[in-house]
């Protein structure tokens, strides 16, 4: 989610069209979990998901239907008040008091299998099918009120102290003064989205296998950022160089794609321009940033000021490094201005951007130390494709 947007609003560069799954992604794999007594399963949870064969955890995309069965094997009649299935997030720094994503689904008793008059299920194996849809949003208590938030993706990264995980559980309730039994497994949830189309001129260039036009010919196809580099060259000459970074629109990128950019350096000191426009001199990275706590819901005006956020609640890691190259000589406007072109890859396994009340995951391209002002206020949403 972009820092410019309301905390729980979709990014304007996300397409409203639904995301369709490829035929291969519609293939369902089976997952089986069980509680055992003397090596014999007596409570079994079986579910089907979009995870690949051999995956340890079920995988569900947005608006997915969770389907499965609960098997209860009894050696003798037992008192069972109800059996429920539930999807819920566990406690985490971002969500200290989690609420279920939906009400528990009661699989017993049901119209097809009512509670016996004796209050006991007879000996034997009882099978209870269930099916329910994962909701797209969840209502959360926040600052004395309630907010409606899009359901965030599963997030857990080694080395990061914050995480968001979901659990699928089945509970056998035996009534007052009796111990309930619960069987639970983690599940992976990944909401999907797609960026809006690129500008018409960029699309035409891609179709014709031509170089996309620059910001002067296609102003709608680029987003501009500026920062000033001040320093000392050769230990004695003070220099000031204006760095302008253009990033291709729309400002939302699919995982596995690339982010095209242009870097323009301009200064009256032509020697400084020559030094800055050596491709090996430019270091541009894509940084994933996690913010936990009140700062996760800062508005854009607050995020523009680095001093407004609590550094102890913000964690970052580099997920990709950009590459750049010099443009043809005829594209330079003169000795006082030079432009480099480049791209930075969005890793296929990077998590999509999202904001979930006290937890924000964003991705930011960090320009040369040249332009700290630009780096501190620009976030790129990564779509869940």
Characterization of this structure:
- The protein contains four helices and 26 strands.
- It has 385 residues and is mostly beta strands.
- It folds into two domains: 168 residues, Immunoglobulin-like (Sandwich), CATH 2.60.40.640; 184 residues, Immunoglobulin-like, CATH 2.60.40.
- The two termini are 15 Å apart.
- The relative contact order is 0.16.
- This is Arrestin-like N-terminal domain-containing protein.
Mean pLDDT, nearest integer?
79
Most strands sheet: 5 strands, mixed
Number of helices: 4
| CATH class label of the largest domain | Mainly Beta
- Whole-number count of domains: 2
Strand content: 35-45%
CATH topology of the largest domain: Immunoglobulin-like
User: SSE order in H/E notation?
Assistant: EEEEEEEEEEEEEEEHEEEEHEHEEEEEHE
Number of strands: 26
Low-confidence regions: 1-8, 17-25, 92-96, 299-309, 369-378
Large-scale geometry: elongated
- If strands are numbered along the chain, what order do they take across the biggest sheet? 3-15-14-6-7
Structural class: mainly beta
End-to-end separation in angstroms reads: 15 Å
Provide the helix percentage: under 10%
Query: Which architecture of the largest domain per CATH?
Result: Sandwich
- Rg value: 27 Å
Organism: Calocera cornea HHB12733
InterPro entries: Arrestin-like_C
Protein name: Arrestin-like N-terminal domain-containing protein
